[in-house]
């Protein structure tokens, strides 16, 4: 069983029939090129492209053919319509093959003669350009590019002049013509600590006299001079707000007469600049005013305020140290005097100046009597040793011994027993001993309190801070501000940077939107 080949049709037009045509069979077999002399026109009865069911591929093909023939169409359907008006069928095979690179003619032999008898009319094409024409076209393109670049550069110059040049010119005019000259008074001072008598005895002596020793004090003074308290004192003493409310000052730097205290303080922080160098421990002060003399007065007043603040920083510490040491010394002295009064009172009451002396005297008397008593007893023993002792002498010796015994007993009784008028010597000795020991203790405590008081005085002297002015405030003889050239250049850079950032932002947004 054999299969007959069947040809498939592509891009068929509505109403087109693929049945064998008798006209084609009866047509002469003359070459197709003989019929191309008379261009074929599109039939007047071509259907409207909008009513045809054209595929997307057909529409793209029609757009490409229209672009090749130089036809500007608003849409793909418009391209089909204009091509048909010119007698070009965009869906003919010959027109589609024009979009494909030319190949050898080996496939032309296989095309049936009937299909080559009525080819699509050839559109007039541009004549090939010679070297001169090509050079002219290139020059025209280059001129167009140059014109576009010049136009863009002109627009860029206008934008730069409006957004950068004009604000810079206004700023330069203000700084050079309108701005009120300001005078800055510079001064430096250092906060020093008192010299130490034994500076090398502790670790603190290693940093004495350096910037590290007074760093906290310098920072505290710096904060105080930039505080509202310093601004209030300066305004009350020298009229800071009244000076900067002068109508002769330009409006941008002038303080309104009805300005609030906060607005005045903001201007104060702008006109008073304080810097601290931690390596050298030097505080630098700059005060700006519209008059050089007023500027120097402001600076000197601020230095005086700083000196008062430096003295107040350690005044409480020094006062507490001295107050505690003084109270301890006074208390020790008072108790020592009370102990001394107690000793004197006991001495007057007991009639004894020194209990030790009285006791020593009593023991001396007892020792003497005991010695005499021992001698009398020895003498009596010698008398009794005789065979015939002298009775009178024996009686005298015995009487003497009895007297000495009575005296010895009385003296010993006086050491412990109190009589009718006075206390016993032991009691007197005990009371005086306690009183004297208390007196000695109070005297020792008084000595320690005196040493503590002296130590506190030395430590208080060490805590004293001194503000030494290394460069006193001197009125300047020429204006310090504004710096017209520097400020103008800075304004130019700022406006240029703003314009550049805005341009980059707009370009990025435009690219994102178009993408």
Automatic annotation (TrEMBL):
Residues 17-51 have a biased composition (Low complexity). It comes from the Bacteria. Residues 1-11 have a biased composition (Basic residues). InterPro entries: Bact_polysacc_biosynth/exp. GO terms for molecular function: protein tyrosine kinase activity. Keywords: Coiled coil, Membrane, Transmembrane, Transmembrane helix. The chain crosses the membrane at residues 153-175, 489-509. GO terms for cellular component: plasma membrane. Residues 1-52 are annotated as: Disordered. Residues 322-414 form a coiled coil. This is Smc_2 protein. The lineage of its organism: Bacteria, Pseudomonadati, Pseudomonadota, Alphaproteobacteria, Rhodobacterales. The gene is smc_2.
